[in-house]
Amino acid sequence: MNIFSKSKKHCDKSNETYMQHMSVAIKISSGLFLAALMGFIHSLIPAFFEKGASSKIIKLYNYLEEKKRIDHEN
Predict the structure, then answer these.
(1) Mind listing the pLDDT tens digit for each residue in 10-22?
(2) CA 71 to CA 73: how far, in whole Å?
(3) What's the DSSP call for residue 48?
(4) How far apart are CA 71 and CA 41, in angstroms?
(5) CB neighbours (10 Å) of residue 49?
(6) Which pTM does this prediction carry?
């Protein structure tokens, strides 16, 4: 199976067009980047983002659960 058919199959499984899937993936990766940045800043200055990174990760997890994007069998 080539990369294009594999990508199409993945988007179809997610019930999304390519553009919708890209938008969701960017939203999730941006959230992860922000959480990483908050965690890094917190490591340098513990008074900043005391719960910011973990709160962001929990929100992302809840979003993924709600949208049925987490496969608990893997």
Answers:
(1) 999 888 999 999 9
(2) 5
(3) S
(4) 32
(5) 20
(6) 0.76
